[in-house]
Input
Amino acid sequence: MGCRASASSHRFAADHVRRFTIVTADGEIRDITPASDPDLFWAVRGGKSNFGIVTELEFGLVPVARFYGGCLFFPAEATAAVLHAWREWAPTLSDDTTTSVAMLRLPPDPALSEPLRGRFVTTLRFVHLGSAEEGAAVLAPMRAVATPLMDLVDEMPYTAVDAVHMDPTEPRRTGPACSRSATASTRRAFSPRTSTWVERAPSSRPRCAPPSWRPWPPTR
Output
């Protein structure tokens, strides 16, 4: 229900939900639509588990067959430069382009490509719905910031969109994704208007979203 890879042009997946079947706290089974119960529909669409148990949902599809995108993996020492550049670059993008960044500490797993194994990396995720030539030109300023460990951006069918965020194809346990500390230069790269995966925990220790990687492709 969260962010789709083409969120800039097609909005969040939750924006395309048309109907919920929900079991409310009184045990009643209800079909909820924007017309039948606009307040409850609004609440269920954004309120997680606080309003009942969703047993079925109907949502609209978007006709997208292909895209130019994937991820760039940058080494830890390039993090501050990448984040500063990304903060200035991202607001200039058109609605045909969606991007995000994440800082991940990857495990020393043999299933991972050797350049990423056991490393702290900054990943730039990128999706462009225009042509590959247009997409390459849009991404060129970020490719020039630093030499990536791996560049997995290419023309892809939309059925491969999970490769953009390296989403696992099977359920798996994941561990913490980021370093316990970040340099002052890295922290300054973020601003209130910049979306990031990093938040400050009450203990002042950084807390990150877990890494959602899979070795795709295993070699490149």
Summary: DSSP finds five helices and ten strands in the chain.
